[in-house]
């Protein structure tokens, strides 16, 4: 299953909730303000196992728009997101 989170972990609990419900085969895409999580050392430890499995994706356009670089996860373009949706099915938005 594909999950997407758009809200910053500094102001919402969406990322906390999805991390509790992810199964080993699930993929997670961070986009909009949620990309901030991939740049914060405090979140890196929580996200690293997902990244190590190749299941954490961070929208490159959203990182660039905020002048950020990811510490964890694979940068993902819009084309890559479309490919991921085709592969994984319609995402569950958090």
Automatic annotation (TrEMBL):
What name has this protein been given in UniProt? Sulfurtransferase complex subunit TusB
Q: Which UniProt keywords apply?
A: Transferase
Q: Cite a single GO MF annotation.
A: transferase activity
InterPro entries with a match to the protein in the record: DsrEFH-like, Sulphur_relay_TusB/DsrH
Cross-referenced Pfam families, in alphabetical order?
Answer: DsrH
Is Transferase tagged as a keyword?
yes
Q: What processes does the entry annotate via GO biological process terms?
A: tRNA wobble position uridine thiolation
Native source organism of the sequence: Oceanimonas doudoroffii
One cellular component term (GO) for this entry is: cytoplasm
Q: Which domain of life is it from?
A: Bacteria
